[in-house]
Amino acid sequence: MPKLPPLAAIRTFEAAGRLENFSRAAEELGLTQAAVSYQVRQLEDRLGRALFVRAKGRVRLSETGKRLLPAISGAFGAMGDAFAALGNDEADVLTISAMTTFGGTWLSARIGGFQLAYPDLAVRMLMNNDLVDFNATNVDVAIRVGLGGWSGLRANFLYRSHVTPICAPGFLNVNHIASPADLLNVDRLAPNDPWWAGWFAAAGVATVPPPQRSGIELDSQLQEASAVQSGYGIAMMTPLLWRVELDAGRLVQPFDTLFLPGTAHYLVHRENRVGVRKIERFREWLRVELAKDRHLLPEALWHPLP
């Protein structure tokens, strides 16, 4: 690619050529007339051709200048359009990063309501469990699990993490599950996960921790739900996220006991973006939607961690 002349000189020529007046070009660019003349002369010396015809204190484009100006004006116009489009895209698109399970269940089932409420905003949702680098991505908000208090980020508490055994109704019946202790002897997904030990302790089962055993470990509750609905095993899952399946009878929660891992779900974004309209809209919408489910969980789970 040929080396271009200095951009400042090209920009000065474009303004001077478009206006055919060095004084007006100086006003537009915030320069002195002498500076405009200098930049144009530098470009002419570089090209070895005159870009303007100077006569009686006035300037007009030379034939070379007339050939060059449309292409340069078009290039600056294209750059301006590109930056404007980028700015509009960033302003009109809300990019959400959500954990795989939360994003693929609760949020996916409701995000259409946010779109209907704010049709001027497009929504882009990314689902993964990786930590978000807000400085290296265009993610506006993230929904993550942790203890809160992340440096440089604003974290809005949503609800406390909670899990309990969930399975298919057929699995419950075939295995004659009547008490929490019965789960020690059935196929459990991720049977050696500390959550199981925590739940058995909360349920008052004396054998804590439960004996080690082999089993299947999957990456998310989405995969676990697929496995248990197919009749394989019972998994530690979050009932708030599976209300549709539980209400429809495709899944069952045998016991009311919940295990609280000691973490919580948060809506997270950079501190310096407090007040950005699309973020505030989503924050308020999320608060209202979660309030609709408040009756489904013990009141303590809706309060921040101590």
Task: Describe the protein in words.
It is a single chain. With 306 residues, this protein is an alpha/beta fold. The protein has three domains: 7-87, Winged helix-like DNA-binding domain superfamily/Winged helix DNA-binding domain (Arc Repressor Mutant, subunit A); 93-161 and 262-301, 3-Layer(aba) Sandwich (D-Maltodextrin-Binding Protein, domain 2), CATH 3.40.190; 164-248, Periplasmic binding protein-like II (D-Maltodextrin-Binding Protein, domain 2, 3-Layer(aba) Sandwich). It contains ten helices and nine strands. It has helices at 7-19, 22-29, 33-47, 63-92, 100-117, 169-174, 194-202, 221-229, 243-248, 277-291, and strands at residues 52-55, 58-61, 93-98, 122-127, 141-146, 153-160, 164-166, 235-237, 264-270. The strands form three sheets. It has a five-stranded mixed β-sheet with strand order 4-3-5-9-6. Helix 2 (22-29) crosses helix 3. It is rod-shaped. It comes from Sphingopyxis bauzanensis. Keywords: DNA-binding, Transcription, Transcription regulation. Pfam families: HTH_1, LysR_substrate. This is LysR family transcriptional regulator.
